[in-house]
Write a structure and sequence with these properties.
The complex is a heterodimer of chains A (476) and B (557). Chain A has 476 residues and is α/β, with parallel strands linked by helices. Chain A contains 18 helices and 15 strands. Chain A has helices at residues 30-35, 40-45, 50-60, 72-77, 103-109, 111-125, 139-154, 185-192, 207-210, 222-234, 236-240, 274-281, 335-340, 359-373, 379-396, 404-415, 423-437, 439-445; strands spanning 88-93, 129-134, 170-175, 217-221, 243-244, 247-248, 250-257, 263-268, 291-295, 304-305, 309-315, 321-327, 349-354, 400-401, 446-448. A five-stranded mixed sheet of chain A has the order 8-7-13-9-10, with helices on one face. A four-stranded parallel sheet of chain A has the order 3-2-1-4, sandwiched between helices. In chain A, helix 14 packs antiparallel against helix 15, helix 14 (359-373) packs antiparallel against helix 17 and helix 15 (379-396) packs parallel to helix 17. Chain A is globular, with a radius of gyration of 23 Å. Chain A starts with 29 loop residues before the first helix and ends in a 28-residue tail after the last strand. The radius of gyration of chain B is 29 Å and the shape is elongated. Chain B has 16 helices and 23 strands. In chain B, helix 8 (325-337) packs across helix 14 and helix 9 (354-367) runs parallel beside helix 14. In chain B, the strands form six sheets. In chain B, strands 1, 2, 3, 4, 5 and 6 form a six-stranded mixed sheet that branches. The chains are: A alpha/beta (476), B alpha+beta (557). Chains A and B meet through helix 14, helix 15 and helix 16 of A and helix 3 of B.
């Protein structure tokens, strides 16, 4: 993987996970890692009772960095130690959410940080076999991880009787074959078992109960597992002071799109607003451009319109809750603040769009992705994701009819909340929010009258525009 | 009293469940979708099948669900009616993959549920070819049925449909139309979980998902046609049945398969004297919901153009035509009377019904011969349904004294007797004597050869008296399967031409062979015959044909 030109952290960043990323003279080998204090937290962790480690993670308030933001300590609390079945830990390194590019830097530049985090987590959860499920598009990352694991084993941090604790642990790297759905934890588990990555129904297949090979399994994101190392280093209570209540720690924002300096920025949760992220971290919009829209948490997060106003409840100085009206730029970049405005912090991928962007084209771009990535297991997502793509495709080609915006919105409504996994929401939230918030752009392009009923398998020629079509892609 | 309680099964825990506002009780472990069905609230479904695992993929069985609202004391809050207050989940839930729980509440027809069903059906139809007029499933298609009940009348879909493979020869007996497939995975799961031949799967993604066989495999299991039965749409069709008959013209008759000793329960579908298909009928004590392809397709011989359709006698005086039934039976009976019992042998069949076997035993007694046995038919079986014993009624033949304790062990002495000339008259019932140790040359040595048969064979060609009889789908009667289960055949079609029910032929032959030449019998119906047999057979005491019922009865033998 080609490296971007290295640059020093922005002053408003607080680098913990990315402390060594892009650092001059830092290399991904174990010597460099140990030289910079690596594996010290592991040495500390093995002196602790496993339950004490779990309690530190609970006390830290760490929330999952993969997308859902589920409290990590609560997830770990579902595991019952000492059961008849083994417990597995899986590191989800299938980073596929469009707009997200953080885990890959940890893997490429600081793999031992992840491995140390995993060893500590396995020690806490009595796991003796762990997997790193890495997406197929990261062949170099897989090689780096394999090498790092071999180094860690050679130095005795991993393998049989690691660091003379009597604790055995093996970590294996498993490469996916290139499918977004493998990032869904039960789809990932199926894929790891050698099957099609069809997500499982929950209930009954909650991974903590019936996970990999029907055994209790914890699936955590790369960044989340790295945080565990730092929580042990500073203690859960100390970690919890970083960020805001219920939104603790730092978070890597991956900001892309129409900004001057796109990139990744590790900040304390809630320490910067969306406006500060764009204007300070990224140097603002391109000259002469106006902000139009932001997708704040990976491509499936609901879009925010630049001129939207939100009424939220905030804590006043005296501790009472007061209503406050804020604009998009005032939104704090943390889990709860983004949820409060109807979107989500998701995977940390912030996509900024200025006034040069066509929202129909943008939605069609997202729809193409989701139509291609739907696994096809359950009906609403399988049929609906391609239908939505075909509608936006037709609108772009000039064949939009006047009820297309309504149909689009309704198709998305018929997917969301009715599918096996969260992909249903992931593929319908963009459509729901784009059509709702940029309706005028859709209606402007979808003006033809609805044609009379036609033989079902043909799109009438009258709907196909004179305008040149985009090159056809994504034909599965 | 005390001994009874000691052996009583542990009590089943009953759970309170609210269905559409009515509180009911269901045993713990009841699947929610089944509980609703029991409450007369049928939930539409595609992927769910009670005999297979529940993947929850079709999303057709979405319902609105709630659980009791918990108070601060972790106890359910009770409403004014003393029942729990329900916390309704704001998104619909599938009912096929979870069991009922205490205090659970469901709404099976609320606006949320209706919207969800409408949505799912619309999705299922947008890429469906809608070729119902030429689809074999039409008339028994869940897609049609649920669209009528829950779907939209108008399509909003203006796009090109996804094209997929059509007319795929996925196996030797099955044709697949991937465009009709709704990807419910029932067939995939059946092959994996029941047939233990994991041969089907999906390829591609999203809307392009396509059912196919694993590389270098075909759907050639002996259980493959069950996938056609459980396919809720017209994706998998039986080569044997497709394009032969619209299903709504078919009359269904409950029967069972007579191709082996398992006796899988079946439905025979026929129209105007022609059988078009045979499908498994659920019986959890016999065949669950399945049957093998071999047994299923083994009815075409009944419709062979070679079927024997009128009685015949070898020696017809020049001035006479072929004798009719009465004349032929009288002459055959009279001919039998001229032999001593030890000069007559009967080769009977494990394919005869109990009623026929009873009369066969009576005939042997009347003649005074103990030279009687059935012909064993053994072949490869499997550990699912197909029995190595291809005779469907060996247990009945043993019970009624027609079979030797080991079926077929008397055939050698019968053959020896024929060859030595000690046996002069041979009666062959539904078998070919050349499969029972005799050659065609041996048969020429007999003075009198009487046979009942459906089709011509080496024995019928030499028979002095040949009586065409009825096949398993053309008659009534009972048989006993390998687990000693008494089961009932029903008549789906009439026998061809003048062919008669075997029991009537045997009754008349028995009458004609009596010294007194009784010209009447008190056996007018098969019910009369069963009653007589049951009275004479301790294991069948107190039973009647109607008491056997559609699912049969276990016997203590």
């Amino acid at each position: 993987m080609s490296q971007r030109p290295r640059r020093s952290p922005h002053p408003r960043e607080r680098r913990m996970i990315f402390a060594n990323i892009d650092r001059e003279g830092y290399t991904p080998d174990i010597d460099s890692y140990v030289r910079h204090g690596g594996y010290e937290q592991l040495r500390k962790a093995i002196t602790m009772e496993p339950d004490a480690i779990v309690n530190e993670v609970k006390a830290s308030g760490l929330r999952g960095r993969g997308g859902a933001g589920f409290p990590c300590g609560v997830k770990w609390g579902f595991i019952r130690r000492g059961g008849p079945k083994p417990t597995y830990l899986i590191c989800n390194a299938d980073e596929s959410e469009p707009g997200t590019f953080k885990d890959r830097y940890i893997i490429h530049q600081d793999p031992h940080q992840l491995i140390e985090g995993m060893i500590i987590s396995c020690f806490a959860l009595d796991v003796h076999l762990a997997y790193i499920y890495i997406r197929g598009e990261f062949p170099e990352g897989a090689k780096i991880l394999e090498k790092a694991i071999a180094e860690a084993k050679e130095k005795g941090y991993l393998g049989k009787n690691l660091l003379d604790t009597g604790f055995d642990l093996e970590i294996y790297v498993h490469r996916g074959a290139g499918a977004y759905i493998c990032g869904e934890e039960t789809g990932l588990i199926e894929s790891l078992e050698g099957k099609r990555a069809y997500p499982r129904i929950k209930p009954p297949y909650f991974p903590a109960v019936l996970g990999l090979y029907q055994c209790p399994t914890i699936v955590n994101n790369v960044e989340t597992l790295c945080h565990v190392k730092h929580i042990i280093g500073m203690g859960g209570a100390e970690y919890a002071k970083i960020g805001r209540p219920n939104n603790t720690g730092t978070r890597i924002l991956c900001i892309s799109g129409d900004v001057v300096r796109p990139g990744y920025f590790e900040v304390e949760l809630g320490a910067v607003t969306l406006g500060e992220a764009i204007n300070e971290l990224c140097g603002g919009l391109k000259p002469g451009r106006k902000l139009k829209a932001i997708i704040p948490g990976g491509s499936s997060a609901k879009v925010l319109r630049a001129d939207e106003r939100f009424k939220i409840k905030t804590k006043a100085e005296d501790g009472s809750m007061v209503d406050k009206e804020i604009g998009v730029e005032d939104i704090l970049m943390d889990f709860d603040s983004l949820a409060a405005v109807g979107s989500m912090a998701g995977s940390g991928g912030v996509i900024v769009m200025d006034d040069s962007r066509d929202m129909v084209w943008t939605l069609n771009n997202l729809n193409e992705f989701y139509a291609h990535e739907s696994c096809g297991q359950c009906t609403p997502c399988r049929e609906g994701s391609l239908w939505m793509r075909k509608i936006t495709d037709r609108i772009l080609a000039g064949g939009g009819v006047d009820n297309d915006p309504d149909v689009l919105k309704n198709v998305a409504d018929n997917i969301a909340g009715k599918t096996i996994c969260a992909f249903g929401e992931a593929c319908s939230w963009p459509t729901q929010s784009f059509v709702l918030k940029f309706r005028d752009e859709f209606t402007a392009k979808a003006r033809k009258p609805l044609p009379p009923p036609i033989p079902p398998e043909y799109t009438p020629d009258t709907l196909i525009a004179e305008t040149p079509r985009l090159p056809a892609t994504n034909q599965a | 009293m005390s001994t009874e309680t000691a052996t009583a099964p542990p009590p089943v825990q009953m759970l309170n469940v609210q269905i559409d506002g009515v509180w009911m009780q269901f045993p713990k472990g009841t699947r929610l979708i089944e509980a609703c069905a029991q409450a007369n609230k049928f939930i539409p479904r595609y992927c769910y099948h009670p005999k297979l695992s529940s993947p929850g993929n079709c999303r057709m069985c979405l319902i609105e669900m709630g659980m009791p609202k918990m108070g601060p004391d972790r106890q359910p809050e009770l409403g004014e009616d003393g029942r729990p207050v329900i916390n309704w989940i704001p998104r619909p839930q599938i009912s096929c993959a979870q069991d009922v729980a205490e205090g659970m509440a469901v709404r099976t027809d609320s606006p949320m549920v209706q919207d969800a069903r409408k949505g799912v059906l619309e999705f299922l139809l947008i890429n469906h070819p809608l070729d119902c007029p030429v689809c074999d499933q039409a008339g028994e298609c869940r897609l049609q049925e649920f669209s009528v009940e829950h779907g939209n009348s108008k399509s909003r879909f203006l796009e090109h449909k996804v094209k997929k493979p059509k007319n795929v020869a996925i196996g030797p007996r099955i044709t697949l139309d991937d465009e009709r497939c709704i990807l419910c995975s029932r067939c995939v799961r059946f092959m994996r979980e029941v047939a233990k031949d994991d041969v089907l799967g999906f390829v591609n993604r999203g809307s392009y998902n396509t059912l196919t066989c694993h590389p270098e495999r075909t759907l050639d299991s002996n259980y493959s046609l069950n996938t056609v039965d459980i396919c809720p749409v017209g994706a998998l069709t039986s080569n044997d049945f497709r394009f032969k008959m619209r299903v709504w013209f078919l009359a269904e008759t409950k029967s069972f398969c007579t191709s082996c000793a398992t006796g899988c329960n079946t439905t025979i579908s026929a129209r105007q004297g022609t059988i078009y298909r045979q499908t498994p009928r659920e019986n959890n004590d016999v065949n669950s919901s399945w049957m093998c392809d071999y047994g299923r397709l083994n009815f075409h011989y009944l419709q062979s153009p070679d079927r024997l359709v009128r009685p015949s006698a070898k020696i017809v005086p020049p001035e006479e035509n072929e004798p009719g039934w009465d004349e032929a039976l009288l002459r055959a009976g009279k001919a039998l009377r001229s032999y001593k019992g030890s000069e007559v042998a009967i080769i009977a069949s494990g394919r005869q019904t109990n009623e026929e076997l009873y009369l066969t035993a009576e005939l042997a007694r009347q003649i005074g011969t103990e030279q009687i046995d059935i012909v064993p038919h053994l072949d490869l079986g499997d550990d699912l349904l197909l029995s190595a014993d291809r005779n469907p009624n060996v247990a009945g033949a043993r019970l009624l004294g027609v079979s030797a304790p080991t079926p077929g062990e008397r055939l050698r002495s019968i053959a020896d007797g024929v060859r030595s000339g000690a046996i002069k008259a041979l009666i062959v019932l539904g078998e070919d004597a050349t499969e029972a140790g005799l050659t065609e040359e041996d048969l020429k040595k007999t003075d009198l050869l009487i046979t009942l048969s459906l089709l011509p064979n080496a024995t019928t060609r030499q028979a002095d008296y040949l009586f065409p009889s009825a096949g398993f789908a053309e008659k009534r009667g009972s048989m006993i399967n390998k687990t000693n289960r008494l089961q009932r055949l029903n008549r789906a079609v009439e026998p061809p031409g003048e062919a008669r029910d075997d029991w009537e032929i045997l009754r008349d032959l028995l009458n004609a062979s009596r010294e007194a030449a009784a010209d009447s019998s008190d056996l007018f119906t098969i019910e009369d015959l069963f009653r007589q047999m049951a009275a004479a057979t301790p294991a069948l005491n107190g039973l009647s044909l109607s008491r056997i019922g559609d699912l049969g009865l276990p016997l203590e033998l």
